Here is the input.
Amino acid sequence: MSILKPYRFYPKESIERRANEILWQMEAVGNFTPRWPLEPSLVADFLDLGVVWDKIEPDEKGAIAARILPAQRLIEIDEDTLDKPEGFQESTLAHEIGHWVLHVNQDEADGIIKQLELDLGNFGAPQEPQEPFICRGPSGSKTESIEWQAQYFASCLLMPRHVLQQKIRGKDLTKWSH
Here is the structure.
């Protein structure tokens, strides 16, 4: 089995539902109750994903803002993103969480982690080191669709429709100065 799920098209409604399910599960636990604006590191903690800020060297395609190390349940974010405008880090982390939820075979990742924890030497452990999950590809490709899915998930997670509707109730957004 692959640590990455095979490509599939997710409709917007399905992506929104997945994001809302996580938020509802967090609320049910109590100590993970979401507050707005949402801090996506709380979601990462709830999903038992580590988050580190580190220097990620660019590859042949250019800068890498973030990547997932599935076999470590880890999201690594390039420390250079700290210089980006406010909200970029939160959006980046929520985007990577979207990849984790939608595109990573979590059962397979957890199986690899368990094998490594058993310390069986080379027996049963992956022969190749697990590559980080970096999602990039040519325009018009499946990769572009996967990127859109992760970004739509991030927007649904950071500002769910029901929260947005509460926040704008009674406000005339046509007169909003920005």
